[in-house]
From TrEMBL:
<keyword id="KW-0474">Menaquinone biosynthesis</keyword>
<comment type="similarity">
    <text>Belongs to the TPP enzyme family. MenD subfamily.</text>
</comment>
<protein>
    <recommendedName>
        <fullName>2-succinyl-5-enolpyruvyl-6-hydroxy-3-cyclohexene-1-carboxylate synthase</fullName>
        <ecNumber>2.2.1.9</ecNumber>
    </recommendedName>
</protein>
<dbReference type="GO" id="GO:0070204">
    <property type="term" value="F:2-succinyl-5-enolpyruvyl-6-hydroxy-3-cyclohexene-1-carboxylic-acid synthase activity"/>
</dbReference>
<dbReference type="InterPro" id="IPR012001">
    <property type="entry name" value="Thiamin_PyroP_enz_TPP-bd_dom"/>
</dbReference>
<comment type="pathway">
    <text>Quinol/quinone metabolism; menaquinone biosynthesis.</text>
</comment>
<keyword id="KW-0464">Manganese</keyword>
<keyword id="KW-0479">Metal-binding</keyword>
<keyword id="KW-0808">Transferase</keyword>
<keyword id="KW-0786">Thiamine pyrophosphate</keyword>
<dbReference type="InterPro" id="IPR004433">
    <property type="entry name" value="MenaQ_synth_MenD"/>
</dbReference>
<comment type="function">
    <text>Catalyzes the thiamine diphosphate-dependent decarboxylation of 2-oxoglutarate and the subsequent addition of the resulting succinic semialdehyde-thiamine pyrophosphate anion to isochorismate to yield 2-succinyl-5-enolpyruvyl-6-hydroxy-3-cyclohexene-1-carboxylate (SEPHCHC).</text>
</comment>
<comment type="subunit">
    <text>Homodimer.</text>
</comment>
<dbReference type="InterPro" id="IPR029061">
    <property type="entry name" value="THDP-binding"/>
</dbReference>
<feature type="domain" description="Thiamine pyrophosphate enzyme N-terminal TPP-binding">
    <location>
        <begin position="7"/>
        <end position="122"/>
    </location>
</feature>
<keyword id="KW-0460">Magnesium</keyword>
<comment type="pathway">
    <text>Quinol/quinone metabolism; 1,4-dihydroxy-2-naphthoate biosynthesis; 1,4-dihydroxy-2-naphthoate from chorismate: step 2/7.</text>
</comment>
Amino acid sequence: MTATHCARTVVSALLQLGVRHVVLCPGSRSAPLAFAWEQAARDGRVELHVRIDERAAGFLALGLAKASGRVVPIVTTSGTAVGNLLPAVMEAAHSGVPIMVLSADRPATMLHTGANQTTDQARLFERFTRGVAEISGGEGTPQAWAFQVSRLVATALGVRTRDPGPVQLNIAFAEPLVPTDGDWPEVTPTRVTPPVATPNVVRVPSRGTVALVGDCAPAVGDRAAGLAMWSEVPILSEPSGNARFGPAIRTYRLLLDTELAGKITRVLLFGHPTLSRPVSRLLARDDVEVIAVTGGARWVDPGVNVARVIDAVEIVPDGTGWDMEWIMAGLELGDRIDAELGDELSGLTVAAAVWQSLTSDDTLVIGSSNPIRDLDLAPVAETAPRAYANRGLAGIDGTLATAQGIALIHGPTTVLLGDLTFLHDVGSLLIGPLERAPDLRVVVVNDDGGSIFHLLEQGADEYAASFERIFGTPTRVRIGPLAEAYGWRHREVTDLATLRTLLAEPVSGREIVEIRVSRDDRRAQAARLIALGSSLT
């Protein structure tokens, strides 16, 4: 057996099990896999995406897997190359995304010898992976290798466990690392089907019930919205909950601090809600029954208060107009917010313009920190875009790379993020001339620093002397020349009317739209919006 034989077996099994995209980082020890994947790509069996930065590659694979629902492998060489995948693996673990780390390794006899680029990497991600396997090109059989591939693919998809997430296949290759023959092995991977189960359906009354939809896949958000919409239950959806359309309550997070919220007796929890403290307080209330509705093995319980975990729910409407109380209060508060914000450029008005420019045919990727929270107060329309965000751990890293993966699956995509999130992943702007580039419009709300910290405890006046250096962190980076260096079109917008006109144009090619805003008023602005909600009777 040779390295070439092993690599081709792995690639053949993965192709037969439905892999259609693979992300590859160049390296020597991973050469057998690189040659095999490149051959498969030339034969039209897979689309190959090459990136030189492993961290960007990991998040690119994350985006591809999020949008496609398929396993997406990331190929790396040995050593620190593998370690750079940790942020993406952690996010995939907490959001249930099926990526596969295909890490090339040195033979086991080279461990702990000080050999070049050799470390103990086989179980590097063990706290975050759903499954791990080790194979060697120097021992075993093609069918034994294919078995490990089959097991990991089923594990990554959660076929039997209902618990999808990242996996790692670590492969030890001995030289020669270049192709030694032209033959591809014939293997038959194991086909795994899901267990048959009867959904656990629970009936609940509509009065006092709200549907709280956190970050989740578009299909899950659609189901949650459809269920609540016809059952007289208020829909409280985060932007990446994919239920924020139609009768969804635009201003729900502000209303959760009013008397209306006191009437809530039951929360149907879908997805992963993490955006606001009013939501956290609601989920922790001892007078509220929290029911997690999920088709997976895991559930979210940030308030440590979930009473039941169920597969599905049936809501019994009672005709009391419970949902209309929320809808009318939400509309009134929305009008007050619009009057308060006016047409001045701010994070909130930019977010509203982006959201209002998109339809159900469009795709939006949202950065963490303030942009997704600003979208959470944007006006609600009859339809909404497919919305994605890395909310498993809510980090700012990898947002541009994730968006590229999503755009390569869905087509033209808009990204809304802040300047620090943009700069944190600026290396992902590098897309080689031999690669298929996505159609991506990146809207950067540039307030030169971390404006979200203005809204937290450390943004209080008594910490002003320390705030700017250790929390505000201004950078003074000029985004225009940076965009030009990477080959992206750059446009700077200075007023809302121009922004709306620009956003009405179809997304084509790669462009960065920069809007400079001030963060000096963010804390006071947030206080004024909270006061508007509190003033409702």
